[in-house]
Write a structure and sequence with these properties.
By secondary structure, the protein is an alpha/beta fold. Strands 8-2-10-1-14-11 form a six-stranded mixed beta sheet, with helices on both faces. A two-stranded parallel sheet has the order 3-9. A two-stranded parallel sheet has the order 4-6. The protein contains ten helices and 14 strands. About 45% of the residues are buried.
Length: about 260
């Protein structure tokens, strides 16, 4: 199965029909229906490593200030305790099995509602442990590669560039910042070539990288995606663009 990184952006994309959401829908039509999905979302960024293991994960509306329609939206995909147990087995480290507290946050469902709109594919989320450095995430994520051979699509959902301090609120058609364009181009070249270490140690890429990822949460979702690439996997960028000048909506697919 493929692995996909989604630049998910604004949670309102769950309700929108635009170039990005149409691109997500096209990805869903182009891939074989998976046995299950493992999603690493920027929005489950907590001081522990955990996996959702409930049969029926709830739809989490982890935001504020949006229309009631968005808060009422439900994505009733089943969970998979079996996949959760397999993730625990593969990671070979202590992973908390969350049977009731979390569910599917908007980094997951606001994208999947377009990719698999029937909500009939089991979905499990793996948290991002905020106490660990990027290299640690990259190394443990490599252990998830086997899931792709077992019919599971591995998804990272964040944003390659995510700077809300410079975001043009309410002005979505502004031109992207020069530093954002430069970092995106650098990252695309490194992803395509398979040269992951500069991306893992992204602070070494200079001021453009630090402006693009002032907090690690949305960026680390990309690290999990990179780690499950095989050397022979083709890399494509099925969705592109910027929102508000400083949010990259780029999606990347391998396999």
């Amino acid at each position: 199965m493929p692995a996909i990184f989604f630049g998910h952006g604004n949670p309102m994309n769950a309700l929108y029909r635009n170039a990005w959401t149409e691109g997500w829908a096209a990805i869903g039509r182009s891939v074989p229906k998976p046995k299950a999905i493992l999603c690493i979302s920027a929005h489950w960024y907590v001081p522990t490593l955990a996996v959702t293991s409930m049969e029926r994960p709830r739809t989490i509306h982890d935001f504020g200030g949006f229309p009631r329609e968005l808060f009422e939206y439900q994505y009733p995909a089943p969970g998979s305790p079996e996949l959760a147990a397999r993730v625990q087995q593969l990671l070979e480290t202590e992973v908390y099995a969350d049977e009731r507290q979390w569910g599917l946050d908007h980094g997951t469902w606001s994208v999947l509602c377009h990719v698999f709109p029937d909500a009939d594919v089991p979905v499990v989320q793996l948290s991002i442990d905020e106490t660990q450095p990027a290299e640690w995430h990259y190394e443990i994520a490599k252990k998830l590669l086997q899931l792709r051979e077992e019919g599971v699509v591995v998804i990272g959902s964040g944003n390659l560039i995510h700077n809300l301090h410079t975001y043009a609120w309410g002005k979505h058609d502004v031109e992207p910042f020069d530093w954002a364009l430069r970092f995106e181009e650098t990252a695309r070249q490194l992803i395509t070539s398979g040269d992951h270490q500069p991306l893992v140690n992204y602070g070494s890429l200079g001021k453009d990288a630090l402006l693009s990822a002032p907090t690690p949460d949305h960026y680390l979702a990309l690290i999990y995606f990179l780690a499950v690439r095989r050397s022979e996997d083709e890399v494509t960028f099925p969705v592109e663009g910027f929102d508000g000048g400083s949010i990259s909506m780029t999606s990347v697919q391998i396999g």
